[in-house]
C-alpha cells in the first residue's frame, strides 16, 4: 500500500488521537487550497513524518486552478470599439436582410394580386393596361422596310405569329409570303395562280383580302376574292384544306383565342362559324344589310363585325344566340378591331375613328377628320385600317395622308388623344401590333385594300416595321448595324 512521509511532530501532537489528526489534516488542506496552490505551500519544519492512507487522501478536495481572464477583459479600448462596430454592422445587415425579404414577399404578393385582378378584368372585358406612355417616336432610319420581287401589288393583310418571330402577309398579286422578324428576310413564298385554276393551283388565284392565325400557332387561314378560305400549316406553308360556303369575297377572318373555332365574314352579308380542327362548318349568322368589311374576335364565344354601307357594327353572341346592333358612322365602315371584350375601334369613309362599348349603342367618342381632308375633293380622307393593342390604351389608324397615327385611350375609354404620327407613303391597308406592343407592322400599297378608286404613284407596295419602345429601337439599330457589317 502506498504511503506518505512527513516530518515528526512535537510530543504534544503525538498525544492526539488518530481521529483528531485526520480532522486537522483535512482542515489544513482545505484552507491551503483556498489560499494558495498546493505545490507552493511550505511544509512545517517541525512536523514528524507520518503515514496517511491513500483512501483518506482521495476523499480530500482537489486544489483549485487559477482563474483565467476572458478575451473581453484582455482586449484594449480600441479593440473593444472595433468589436462593437462589427457587431453593429452585422445587426444592420440582419435587419436589412429581413426588410428585403419582407419587401420581396410583399412584391410577390402584390404581383399575384395584380395578376389575379388583371385576369378578372380581362374576363370581364374591362382590362386597360397603360402602355401608350411607354411609346417613343422612332427615328426614320430605324423603320425597317420589307419588300421583295414577288411583292408586286399592294399588301392587303398581315398577321404576326403568336411568338412574334414570323410575319405572314397577303397581297393583291395573290401571293402569300412568310417573313422572319429577327432578320427581316423573306423565308417562303406561295405564289399566286391564274384566275380559273382554283381546282388545280396550290394557293390563291385572286386578291387575298384577310388572314388570321390561331393562338397555338398551328393553323393559318387566308381569304380571297373568289369566296374561298384556305387553311395552311404555318411552319411549312403547306395547304391543309379549303373551306367553301361563302357566296361573296371573304373580307374578314378571326380565331376565337385558345380554340380552333374560326369566324369568317364576306360580302354575302353573312358571318360563318367553322371548326378548323374538324374541317367542318358550324353555322351562319345573318343580320347585316350590306357587304361585311371587317371582323374580329377575342377569347369569348362572340365576334364583332362592321357592315360597310349599312353603317352598323354588330356583336354576335353565339351562346345567347343573339346580336347587338350599334350605329354612329355617317358613311361606310371599312375596318374594325377589338381592344378588349367590351370595347372596340372602327374607321370609316367619313374620316372618323370611333371608340365603342357594349353598354352604349352610339360611339363613346369620335375623332372627326382623323387623317385630315383631301385637298382635291375637300372631303375627309377615308380611314383604311385600324388596330389596337389588346387590353391596353394604345390604338393605331391609317389612311393615305402619309402617316400612321397612334392614339391614347383615356381612362374608361371616354376619349381618344393623338399620341404621335409615323411616316407611311401610300395607302395603309393593314396594321398589326406585336404581342408586347414594342413593334407595329403596317402593310402599304398604291391602292386601297377593297378597290381601285385611286392609285397613288408616290406610294410603294411594301411593309413597314416601326419600333415603338426604346428597347425595340435599340434592337433594330443593332440589327441594322449587323446588316451593314455583313
From TrEMBL:
InterPro entries: Rrp9-like (IPR039241), WD40/YVTN_repeat-like_dom_sf (IPR015943), WD40_repeat_dom_sf (IPR036322), WD40_rpt (IPR001680). One of its GO terms (biological process) is rRNA processing. It comes from the Eukaryota. Coiled coil: none annotated. It is found in: Nucleus, Nucleolus. Residues 46-76 have a biased composition (Acidic residues). Residues 1-30 have a biased composition (Basic residues). GO terms for cellular component: small-subunit processome. WD repeats lie at residues 201-242, 243-284, 285-326, 383-407. Transmembrane segments: none annotated. Keywords: Acetylation, Isopeptide bond, Methylation, Nucleus, Phosphoprotein, Repeat, Ribonucleoprotein, RNA-binding, rRNA processing, Ubl conjugation, WD repeat. Residues 1-76 are annotated as: Disordered. The keyword Nucleus applies. The keyword Thylakoid does not apply. GO terms for molecular function: U3 snoRNA binding. Interacts specifically with the U3 small nucleolar RNA (U3 snoRNA). Binds a sub-fragment of the U3 snoRNA surrounding the B/C motif (3UBC). This association with the U3BC RNA is dependent on the binding of a protein called 15.5K to the box B/C motif. The association of the protein with the U3BC RNA was found to be also dependent on a conserved RNA structure that flanks the box B/C motif. Part of the small subunit (SSU) processome, composed of more than 70 proteins and the RNA chaperone small nucleolar RNA (snoRNA) U3. Belongs to the WD repeat RRP9 family. Component of a nucleolar small nuclear ribonucleoprotein particle (snoRNP) thought to participate in the processing and modification of pre-ribosomal RNA (pre-rRNA). Part of the small subunit (SSU) processome, first precursor of the small eukaryotic ribosomal subunit. During the assembly of the SSU processome in the nucleolus, many ribosome biogenesis factors, an RNA chaperone and ribosomal proteins associate with the nascent pre-rRNA and work in concert to generate RNA folding, modifications, rearrangements and cleavage as well as targeted degradation of pre-ribosomal RNA by the RNA exosome. This is U3 small nucleolar RNA-interacting protein 2.
